Amino acid sequence: MMQIHEIEAIKSILATPKKITIVPHRNPDGDAMGSTLGLYHILKQLQHDVVVIAPNEFPDFLAWLPESEKVLIFERSFDTCKAILEKSELIFTLDFNALHRTGDQMENALKTLTVPSVMIDHHQAPDGYATYTFSDTAYGSTCEMVYDFIHQLSLENLINKTVATCLYTGIVTDSGSFRFPKTTSATHKCVADLIEKGINNSEIHNLLFDNSSYNRLLLLGKALQNLKMLPEYKTTYITLTQDELNEFGHQKGDTEGIVNYGLSIKGIDFTAIFIEHKEEGIIKISFRSQGDFDVNQFARNHFNGGGHINAAGGKSFSNLDETIQQFIAILATEKK
Ligand code: 5GP
Ligand code: MN
């Protein structure tokens, strides 16, 4: 929960109409988009002038979220977004713990601002950049935190079907459809309340998960063919080269969720997916674990990343083969 004096301070800022910008992390996922749009639809009802600015494009499988078409993209509309940021009187940063998670360009713009800011986030080791920080790794999603934050502000009457649809989306995507360990009775109570607001919960699952292109499934097939087993380390990993992505007409979001297949094998408690990004010159990596193996530390220590204990990401500046060799060498020393 946020401290009472912080809630009072935020309430007094919100007492009169303000220019407010809400920011998710770069490569925003369901929780990042759901939480920013959920809060956006609350603040709009209070007559604030609210804009969501995402650092870069969000995936198509989220493009049905209410008013997602109004989200501005910083790296596409640099001057417009910079001007809006500079006029903002309050900034919310949601679902990330350090400004560099917005990418170099947006980080530079955010760093220079001096207006009050609010961080709401559930990742480990938050930076102290925000004026008001609500950071708690016990939550499974930022959307659930926004739900509690709305209650702390006594604005729960504003949770309508639209807000509930956005928040439900982030809870579903970040909890692996209510199966990851941070799914609590509080999560289910929150979800019960959101369903009572009239959301089409089953339809939201269809929109999120049953909307693949044919190519996306073929790409998944390719990824599964590339799956490697390292039973001595209880580990699996998947690779996808840029050529393979191109072969299946890769669209943003197509690789979302593929990493989880590596954990579905009996006896495996650690998995990774390595995806080549030729243009950026990096290998983007996602890590997942079951139980005590801390992939946040693993990503931080070895692959320029971070995240949560059981789900983290990072990147490598070596080529794909070298990155895999490094990965296996690290396993040999750290995971006997
Ligand atoms: P994903 O593997 O789905 O991209 O990310 C898993 C989790 O790790 C997410 O919570 C995400 O925010 C975090 N994460 C992913 N990539 C990075 C990264 O490069 N740096 C940090 N600090 N966290 C990341
Ligand atoms: Mn999240």
General description of the model:
This protein is α/β, with parallel strands linked by helices and 336 residues long. The chain folds into two domains: 4-209, Alpha-Beta Complex (inorganic pyrophosphatase (n-terminal core)), CATH 3.90.1640.10; 214-334, Diaminopimelate Epimerase, Chain A, domain 1, CATH 3.10.310. 39% of the residues lie in helices and 18% in strands. The protein is built from twelve helices and twelve strands. The strands form two sheets. Strands 3-2-1-4-5-6 form a six-stranded parallel β-sheet, with helices on both faces. β7 and β8 form a beta hairpin. α5 (142-152) packs antiparallel against α6. The longest helix is centred in the first third of the chain and has 16 residues, at 30-45. The radius of gyration is 20 Å and the shape is globular. The two termini are 39 Å apart. The mean pLDDT is 97. Guanosine-5'-monophosphate (5GP) is lined by residues 123, 286, 305-308, 311-315.
Tags for this entry?
336 residues, alpha/beta, inorganic pyrophosphatase (n-terminal core), Diaminopimelate Epimerase, Chain A, domain 1, 2 domains, 6-stranded parallel sheet, 6-stranded mixed sheet, 12 strands, binds guanosine-5'-monophosphate, binds manganese (II) ion, DHH_sf, nucleic acid binding, Phosphoesterase RecJ-like protein
CATH superfamily of the largest domain: inorganic pyrophosphatase (n-terminal core)
Unreliable residue stretches: none
Major sheet summary line: 6 strands, parallel
Overall pLDDT metric: 97
Per CATH, the architecture of the largest domain is Alpha-Beta Complex
What is the rounded distance between the termini? 39 Å
- How many structural domains? 2
Cofactors and ligands = guanosine-5'-monophosphate, manganese (II) ion
Task: Please report the total strand number as a whole number.
Answer: 12
